[in-house]
Amino acid sequence: MKTELCHFCLKTGVLCSRCEEKVKKGEVGPSYMKIAKLLLDLEPKGFGQLAETHLLNVAEVGDVLVLVFDRGDLVKLKPIKGRLARKLEEMLGKKIHIMEGNVDERTFIEQLFWPSTLLTINKIWLPDDSVETRVILKGRRPWADVDKLAEVARQLRGLTLRVEFAR
User: What are the b/e assignments for 55-93, b being 16+ CB within 10 Å?
Assistant: First the structure.
């Protein structure tokens, strides 16, 4: 499995100067190192498809953990995705969601709020020159708490979301 940090750094827990710089710059989140190490340990234990993937980022908010893999990696993970999520949930005691990175904003939001259906996305420009993204969903409730998912979007993409449900 490809990661943003060196395999040696992940296995030893001691960061080289290049990996330490990535952590300081915020290119990888605080829980990235722990999850990447866990996935590397699971790879030879029946999760061989992980070897063909690239873990881009990890976001953790309360009991919600989102793993972001490179574009196209979900197809490779399809045979083990459910089993991998259950194994991680069992080990960490958190709700796990696996999604694709390097996608456009609409696809990112659709994946994040799955199984809800995304009706529309609007940009709201506020007087203080900040921008909020208004998201309108319908159908089933998302897989986790909406406020936690909005915080995940802020961590991963820097999006400030205002989530509403259609009647």
Answer: bbbbbbbeebbbbbbeeebeebbeebeeebbebbeeebe
Please tell me the total number of residues recorded for the chain in this structure: 167
Task: Quote the Cα angle for 10-16-19, to 5°.
Answer: 70
pTM of the model: 0.85
Residue 9's identity, in one-letter code, is C
Instruction: Report the 3 state secondary structure along 23-73.
Output: HHHCCCCCCHHHHHHHHHHHCCCCCHHHHHCEEEEEEEECCEEEEEECCCH
Please count the other Cβ atoms lying within 10 Å of the Cβ belonging to residue 97: 20
Q: What is the mean pLDDT of residues 30-41?
A: 85
By the 8 A CB rule, do 32 and 57 touch? yes
80: DSSP letter: T
Q: How far apart are CA 152 and CA 31, in angstroms?
A: 13
pLDDT digits (tens, 9 = 90+) for 46-94: 888 888 888 888 988 888 999 999 888 888 888 888 888 888 898 888 8
